[in-house]
Amino acid sequence: MRDGVPGSWQRAATANIGRASSGRDTIQRMPAPASGLATSATRRGIAGAGTGARTQRARTARLIVPPVLVEVIRGGIVESRHRGHVVEVGADGSVERALGDPGIDVLLRSCAKPFGLVAFVESGAADAYGVTPAELAVLAASHSGEDLHVRTIQAVMRRAGVSQSLLACGTDGAPLDALTAVRLTRDGERPGPIRHMCSGHHASFLLMSKYADWSLDDYSQPDHPSQVAFRGAIARVFGVRPDSLRIAVDGCGVQTFAFPLVDVARAFALLADPAGVAIDPSRRALVPALTRIRDAMISAPELVAGNRERLDTAVMKAAPGRLVAKAGMEALRGIALLPGSRGSGRPAAGLAVKIEDGDSAGRAGRAATVEALRQVGGLSDDAMRRLAPYHHPPAHDPRGTIVGESVPRFELAPISELR
To answer: How far, in Å, CA of 314 to CA of 195, rounded?
Structure first.
């Protein structure tokens, strides 16, 4: 594996990490001990352990059948099943609960945004342009393209003297918000890149480039200084060298990065409590920027995603001041659980959820995330009531009658109970 000797997870096949609904075909790995954001074994995987080692990991990974996290039920019949992986880590980076394979490689996609934004804050551009908490939140967002999002991004770009015509994120799928899309169509307005979910992310590169006097029209190119700074911030958060990052291209045209799921959870634990988690000198310098980004996202949850049918916003509003949620495409989501969010006196934690099939309908990721948060103690009874449509996403017929639902079917047993 990516986080230990193969024999360690093969022996765990009969021990199970957590419990899935049936248990008939859930072969799972036991996570390796962790002493930081990225363990030495994890770093070896990221840094490119040799082609042979990666090939062997790929072969053994095919033996693992992820557990069922969510069942889709219609008329009392299980119509489909969504498999996946869940991992919770404590403030010290150790795995506290897990189901499936904590070491599975995932692409961060938009989960990278809060961490990459460190480069923007540290550059001085945020202070130079008087960026407000709401504006900082939308720069870390995958927003719905509502007018609120557009106006907020336009305001900071206008102050900096940067034209929105320079945004290179495209318009694919914009806007996400259905009501806004209908209104634009009715009014004959064609959505521009500013409506794209990643326009805030791209705006941060433009603003940083304008402040540093770098070129603007090629800011999205991999060798541009803004992208070099972005990679550097990600590497620092995850405790690796920039030249060891495994890189792919995101849907909006800039780079994204691959890490084991457990390291995604560790990064979100760091976001939850930067001063308390960043114990080694290499990450202490991240504390001011990460704290500012975390607090901005908490203060403006509607700017992190959107006002309608967006789980990240809904869960942050249901547990105000207690957590930060950030999703990425292909059904990855990270949750930063602030100190005290799981109970009085309890330290920060990080939670990561991945739906194996990409969850194109969005139902499994919602159900699994809310259920995982419930099990780790991150949501009150009142919050669960408010999040009921996300916990058991309904299916409707043309008359609006509920004819089915997606139901979470897993248990996150503490690791201590399984040893």
So the answer is: 21
